Amino acid sequence: MHVTSGKNQADEGCIAMSSENEKDGQPSETAVASSEDDKSISKDETKSHEEKSTALSSDTPVSQRPVPQFEKSISDKIASKFGSKVSVDYVRANRIRVSTKKEDISDVAYFIRDELGYDHAESVSGVDYPDSKEIEVVYHLGSYTDEKLATQVLTLATRVPREEIPNPGKDSSRMTSLREVFYSVEFHERECFEMFGVYFEGHPDNRRLLLPEDWADIPPFRKDFKIKGR
Amino acid sequence: MTTQLPPGIQLEKVDDRIMTLNVGPQHPGSGHMRLIIKVDGDYIVSCDPDPGYVHRGEEKMAEYRNYIQNIPHLERPVIHDSSNILYPYCLATEELLGIEVPERAKYIRVIAAELNRCIYTLYWLAIYGIFLGHSTMFMWPAGDRELFIDLLEAMSGARVTHAYLVPGGVRNDLPANFEERCLRQVDYFEKRIKEYQAIFYKNPLLISRTEGTGVLSRTDAIRLGTTGSVLRASGVNFDIRKKEPYDVYENLDFETVVMKEGDSYARSYVPYLEMFESCRIIRDAIRKMPKSGSVRTKLKPNPKGGNDEVYKRVESGRGALGYYIVSNNRPEPYRVKISVGSFRNLICMPYLLKGELLGNMPAVYWSLNYWPVEADR
Amino acid sequence: MLKEFFNQETAPHATNVLVGKLGDILVRAVGKPLDYAINWGRIWSLWPVHLETACCSVEFGAASSPRYDVERFGIIEAFGSLRQCDLIVVMGTITRKMAPRLRMVYDQMPDPKYVIAMGACAITGGLYFDSYNVLPGIDGVLPVDIYVPGCPPRPETLIQGCMLLQEKIKRMKGA
């Protein structure tokens, strides 16, 4: 038995919005311009769209931004301390990315915490690269104590080997946990362990966090885990 | 003699003194998660949070949809704060695709985000009231938030899931006479929430249950990497709207609310005071907003992201909310990671509940400004 | 017929037959009004379980707010034990971790019990049709009485769903 309310026009609008890419002639009394916008991004109307493509924005950033000075000074400190052990991937406004080998990550993290003043981790994410047989573990670090560093997010990345048939906790996908350095990574690393199968050595609590207790498949965020119908 | 146990069930050794309590998922004071609490008499010995009951794999789903198709399902984790959870996604996508946002759209986004922050805070406050057995405090905020829901419904067309912010601006322009209506409602709203002081924040019942419970010191708040109102209630002056202003927040006039106590009372008071700042921001934004102009930059169909990565964060109702998007020249993102405030504040739970009275558990737990659906993603 | 009552051997059987027939007449005469009375009591005191499963619980909360006030229709915002509840509103997505718990909660409720599936996720899986951790609807877990569509449904829609459930209970057998 289905319920339809006479008053839920807004709900129908909500559903129509959800499928923004499908061809929708969603009636919108408020603004005519908006419905044109909705059409212009829909897949089906590529042809009509190409004609007025001059007004469109390009796919990739056009101009290279200038390298900011303050961020450069931080990355220089890391580079001069560790030399060839680290590589500075990019320096942009408020964002620095440093990658290192998994053996050195603990030293680099201690340096970042004690000398540079970053004091907490915002997130720990994994990125799976099946082509190069590696999983990248990315730490986003920030600072509450240092006023100057408040805008900065330092990205510390490392790569661990990836195995075709994962056996979480027992195979070679493992690295040193940074929980001793940044206490706040505790739950993030647990999440990374179950979603990618990267085992963190020295982590006191490598248990399952979000997935069901009876999960018996490979870690779901790996690229070879396909979701249904795709 | 041993009886045959059903599969998956284990007998636990019973301790005479320490008892294990499963609080949730069906419990008036738990929300959508389980807390495994060990109690000694009336005192909590240890607490082990068990989230994941609403883990829907948003991040995996985002890898199969293009940048526009991702909008509806990425706002579902916090439907009553949907503008704020889409905000960093739009900022990140704009940086990846190289889109400029029109000036008017930036102001409209800020207004939508602040209205949504009030809606979120009031819902949170309503649930906090009913967790503490204060039914009036459920009814008042739950009724008052409908005012701002009406405003957002007029802006976007939907009651809670607005999908109003899109990469490149906002989906449609403001309705006619919106400015007047918004200012009128904000004035009324401010008058209403001032009355909460008398019935809730000066109520001896609330004070006795929250003052001095679950104290989080400043050093611990920093070490545990907490965020949002939990952090500001412990005396750290950190608000991304001030520290790393996005869109037009640097032009607007508001202040960060900081309290030093770090107990449950301060944690419940900070979001309340922030609603007044939100009202200030809305008034200021309406005054400074360009009166006309475009509100959305057009995108190419199936825009591709380039070989790049980006991390953008905003201040949501629950704290910092960051999107880490990696793209690899495809219309779909290669990896989307949502760093949410709720998940970051989850780590406080074992530390704050240890040594606390069991009866104060809901007061401490919900003061963490925690929304389980967002934490599980 | 009457002789059977006075005969020592057949008297017990004849008494049983008489009582059975009287019972039939009584059920026919009183049963329908009794059903009506019992169902009338059930309709106006539906106690929902406090089990939030996903984001639709926000709109369920809004439905009991002063503007919509679902208590007018006898749906009481329940914070009691499962043993007092007779309605379970499944508020949204059921994940694979939640499904066994949902069934466990349902099994602990006393009969009669009613199920409302609220939101697209509880009906078919909704937006999360291709997620690895979400069930495609709760039909495999619980017997559903009323489906309330929407993502999330507006409070009015939920109220209408509750009223439809009340209509349905009216026509059910009382005991």
Structure description:
With 230 residues, chain A is of the alpha/beta class. In chain A, 27% of the residues lie in helices and 20% in strands. Chain A has 6 helices and 7 strands; from the N terminus they run ααααββαββββαβ. Chain A has a 5-stranded mixed β-sheet, with helices on one face. A two-stranded parallel ribbon of chain A has the order 6-7. The longest helix of chain A has 14 residues, at 69-82. The two termini of chain A are 31 Å apart. Chain B is built from 16 helices and 8 strands. With 377 residues, chain B is of the alpha+beta class. In chain B, the strands form 3 sheets. A 3-stranded antiparallel β-sheet of chain B has the order 1-2-3. In chain B, strands 6-7-8 form a 3-stranded antiparallel β-sheet. In chain B, strands 4-5 form a two-stranded antiparallel sheet. In chain B, helix 4 (103-131) runs antiparallel to helix 5 and helix 5 runs antiparallel to helix 6 (178-194). Chain B folds into 2 domains: 18-49, no CATH class; 55-376, Orthogonal Bundle (Cytochrome-c3 Hydrogenase, chain B), CATH 1.10.645.10. Helices cover 45% and strands 13% of the residues of chain B. The model of chain B has no long low-confidence stretch (mean pLDDT 86). The N and C termini of chain B lie far apart (46 Å). Chain B has helices at residues 58-62, 70-74, 82-97, 103-131, 135-156, 178-194, 196-201, 204-210, 218-223, 229-233, 240-243, 264-288, 341-345, 348-353, 361-367, 372-376; strands spanning 18-23, 34-40, 43-50, 165-166, 169-170, 307-316, 319-328, 335-339. Chain C folds into 2 domains: 2-43; 57-170, Rossmann fold (3-Layer(aba) Sandwich). Chain C has 6 helices and 3 strands. In chain C, helix 4 (99-108) links the parallel strand 1 and strand 2. In chain C, helix 3 crosses helix 6. Chain C is elongated, with a radius of gyration of 22 Å. Chain C starts with a helix and ends in a 5-residue tail after the last helix. Classes of the chains: A alpha/beta (230), B alpha+beta (377), C mainly alpha (175). Chains in contact: A-B, A-C, B-C. The interface between A and B is large, with 69 and 70 residues.
